[in-house]
Design goal:
Shape: elongated
Strand order of the largest sheet: 1-2-3
Strand content: 15-25%
Number of helices: 3
Order of helices and strands: EEEHHH
Radius of gyration: 22 Å
Distance between the termini: 64 Å
Length: 122
């Protein structure tokens, strides 16, 4: 079920966590080699996930876990949640902007240049 790899290096299991009633295992493979080619695998149920991090990010993650007293799995789940929320917010803002353009609610480039110039001049 794991993606095929061009190069193999040992994976280190750093997190086991529970989501609801079943455990999810996350494997994080840390290495400084070139990125590998992977083949996507799609399943209906998430059983395990592998995240490849550069060595410096692994060190920062472990340092943050020690400093905060939290597990690396909690920190990664929080980071992913923030990323997904930001992505949803950004897509919503793009749609708002597209709607404003469609309604003609925008300033032409010359008008914006004059506005910025007026803001910068005392």
């Amino acid at each position: 079920m794991w993606a095929n790899r061009a190069l193999e290096t040992p994976a280190r299991e750093v997190a086991v966590f529970h989501n609801g009633s079943f455990p999810l295992r996350a494997l994080f493979q840390f290495q400084s080699l070139q990125p590998r080619l992977t083949r996507a695998c799609f399943t209906r149920t998430l059983k395990a996930m592998e995240v490849l991090l550069p060595e410096n990010q692994e060190a920062q993650l472990n340092e943050l876990a020690l400093r905060t007293g939290r597990g690396t799995d909690d920190l990664i789940q929080e980071a992913v949640a923030h990323m997904l929320a930001h992505n949803a917010w950004f897509q919503e803002q793009v749609q708002i902007g597209i709607g404003q353009i469609a309604r003609g609610e925008f300033i032409e480039e010359d008008g914006m240049d004059a506005r910025v110039k007026g803001m910068l001049e005392p």
